[in-house]
Protein: S-methyl-5-thioribose kinase
Organism: Streptomyces bobili
Amino acid sequence: MGYRILETDDIPSYLRERGHWDDVDDIHVREVSDGNMNRVFLARSTDGSRSLAVKQALPWVRVAGPSWPMSPDRADAEARAYAQIAKVAPDKIPAILGYDPENHALVMEDMSDLEVLRTLLNEGASYGPHTSARIGELVAQLSFTTSDFGMPSADRKALIAASVSPELCKITEDVVLSEPYLTHEHNHWLPELDDLAAEFRADAALRTEVADLRHTFMTSAQALLHGDLHTGSVMVGTREGAPVVRVFDPEFSFVGPIGYDLGLYWANALVSEERARALGTLADHADQLRLSWDGFETEFRRLWPTRVDTFFDDAYLDRFLRRVWTDAVGYAGTEIVRRIIGFAHLTDLTTLPAPAPASRRALLLGRELILRREELSTADHIRALA
Ligand code: SR1
Ligand code: MG
């Protein structure tokens, strides 16, 4: 039949055709699309005893519409990434019930009992003691097991080939790692930030450092990444009295530099901290870099003795982790900058009653993280700067 764009009314028969739902008279569907890229529907039985989510990639960027075409093949990358993460951290992603490559649609666990981390933080909640540690742990589990430490060389080459995702990598290379430092129609910012936006475009030293991070993003095939690990890609809550952290939306997944995933998470934590500072609701925001790094490093070191290639010795591990840290600091800087003067902004800042002062502070912090990433060697150094 070929690819078709699913509308709310199509979902009951679609789910029946795909073998996920028998009684199409007892199904209520609503669209809950929220991200920049795709459509999401929730289907639920009348008594709420059954529910699931359907996510479909459109042939364009959802928030831009058909004027920004984008292959729906990106859903294949997402399905592949989920399959890989499920092997090593099944408790940290939603259960995937099926993937339909023809319609680029994933059927998955309904997580609407959980909350998007960004939404909670914007409402003034704290992170809690587990969230960032679990995120760090997930990055370690995914990255170690898909690196040359966790996989035989030939399997790694096959993984790299299977995970090539040129269109989505190009989005990141453009909207994160170059456009904010150029004159580009995608860029927009608050009028109060005109001076800084112009300064960033004219700053040759800043541009060279971003070029370095961009080239590392393009060439450093360290491990399979989530690829877009911001606080809007994390759901949290409690199930049966236990804290739950679920990472979703790995459509930007590819084999790249591990620091990119950590850096994105850090940037969003730092921006959320600026929001909390502006509103006087600062809770445990200041500690999230340290908690996520500790979670990452502890898990990566725990896995190290299982490495498949012992030519990589313990001294090399220290050097490797240092490089991941430095990359993460730099990518955190680029993520902050692009979220304020680039294409896709953050509700953390845009919904503030007076967004300019916090945005300005964050932008200046982002620049420092990019320029001084080699010397900012601990979470305390970054803390002092923030
Ligand atoms: C055109 S897409 C802009 C952003 O949305 C996605 O969530 C990624 O963060 C991407 O950079
Ligand atoms: Mg997303």
User: Anything to note?
Assistant: The radius of gyration is 21 Å. The chain has two domains: 27-109, 115-385. The mean pLDDT is 97.
